[in-house]
């Protein structure tokens, strides 16, 4: 199963420097827009729906995608009816698109002896007080990670785990690792996915293998918001009953 990973397109999907490679599953791990406004989100979803050649296309929200968080808040009742019209159940599946927010889907393929479980979540520790932010090391974010099933094969989050493709170096923050410590703990001790796809930290784009997990920061935009990074390709295979994710250099 070939998986193509992208993230952090920030409404610049039509200006990407590199085409989206062919594959079986396309994953976008959030920040589809700049502020979650109707025009940007509508354009992204129509673009994502019209990408051809994939059996499944999956996306989550990120900290810039305010509308996906606010749609469920009582004081925004009615403000995001336009988003409901885009996301209704009969619309997205017609184009093989799935939106994940603290839930999962399974994909069956003759390549594997069992279904592949894919879980998606938009949360991250406080980062400039944008969308889907929760206090670092707090009970709320701990509970979000506790919802991830033990048997998750592919984990999609917007933010990275601590000390894995999460280093920020700029005038506002200096140099520091901003990934989630509690997410890293859950991954290391319990979940142990074959593949973890995220974005959020543009300057930490790339892939790393740690233990038996392939970690992919698939940010398309650079720190300067230029959409010049390549989509990252991963091949998922099964060897003696074990699901393995292999990074493919294009």
List the helices and strands and how they pair.
Blueprint (H helix, E strand, L loop, with lengths): L1 E5 L18 E4 L9 H12 L6 E4 L6 H5 L10 H7 L9 E3 L3 E5 L8 E6 L2 E2 L7 E2 L4 H8 L7 E4 L9 E4 L3 E4 L3 H11 L3 E4 L7 E5 L2 E5 L14 E8 L2 E7 L2
Parallel strand pairs: 1-2, 2-3, 3-4, 6-9, 7-8, 9-12, 12-14
Antiparallel strand pairs: 1-15, 5-6, 10-11, 13-14, 15-16
* Contiguous helical run count: 5
How many structural units, i.e. domains? 1
Largest sheet entry: 6 strands, mixed
Question: Gyration radius, to the nearest Å?
Answer: 17 Å
Overall pLDDT level = 95
Unreliable segments (pLDDT under 50, ≥5 consecutive)? Answer: none
Going by helix content, strand content and strand pairing, the class is alpha/beta
CATH architecture: 4-Layer Sandwich
Q: Tell me which oligomeric state these chains represent.
A: single chain
Output the CATH class name.
Alpha Beta
Helix content: 10-25%
Main-sheet strand order equals 4-3-2-1-15-16
Strand residues, percent? 25-35%
Task: Write down the overall geometry.
Answer: globular
Order of helical and strand elements: EEHEHHEEEEEHEEEHEEEEE
Number of beta-strand segments: 16
Cα-to-Cα separation, first versus last residue = 16 Å
CATH homologous superfamily - what is it?
Metallo-dependent phosphatases
Instruction: Provide the CATH topology.
Output: Purple Acid Phosphatase, chain A, domain 2
